[in-house]
Amino acid sequence: MTETTSTAAVQIPAAGTYQLDPAASTVTFTTRHLFGLAPVTGTFQLISGQITITDPLTSSTASAVIDAASFATGNPRRDQDVKSATLLHVTDHPQITFQSTELAHDGPTWRLRGHITARGTTAPAELTITDATASNDTLQIRATTRIDRYAHGLTNAKGRAARHLNLQITAHATRT
Questions:
Q1: What is the pLDDT along the chain (176 residues), one digit of tens a residue?
Q2: For the domain that residue 91 is a member of, what is the CATH number?
Q3: Within-domain flag for 148
Q4: What's the CA gap between 57 and 71, in Å, rounded?
């Protein structure tokens, strides 16, 4: 059973380990290109992940693996450029990973802090949990974060590609 305690749009799930369902989860992003003049939206595909809910709740953890080669904006030339050695270099770095280090409760806001590794470089990340719904043995979490590509050594294509990506994550998971 799930606990009925909630803060804002966050419902606290039952303790346990939840496996992410890649087919039901989404990772979308927005950014800009051409010196910030044009908006770009796109997606990544989730490969796997796990959420472990503990007591105390602040000791809970999360991890996720994203397929770097799944980067897609609907513009084949741009997508190929981003996946090339110029930026993501998906041949040598096929995965982007997240590993949490802390779950913090800041007033009505829950923040999941950790590290994202992209192209072999690890940098801090903080996800803001905007919604969490738990029922029976399932869990859905929505979170947002802003990624600085320069922090991952992705500094090529300045002007053509924006420095920041705003990620929106919807994770569906089932308790194991």
A1: 333 344 457 888 889 999 999 999 999 999 987 655 789 999 999 999 999 999 999 999 999 999 999 999 999 998 999 999 989 999 999 999 999 999 999 888 999 999 999 999 999 999 999 999 998 899 999 999 999 999 998 888 776 778 899 999 999 999 99
A2: 2.40.128.110
A3: yes
A4: 33
Residue 150 token pair: 């320069």
What is the span of the domain harbouring residue 119? 6-155
Distances (CA, A) of 132 to 47, 59, 69, 140: 21, 17, 28, 6
Give the chain's domain count. 1
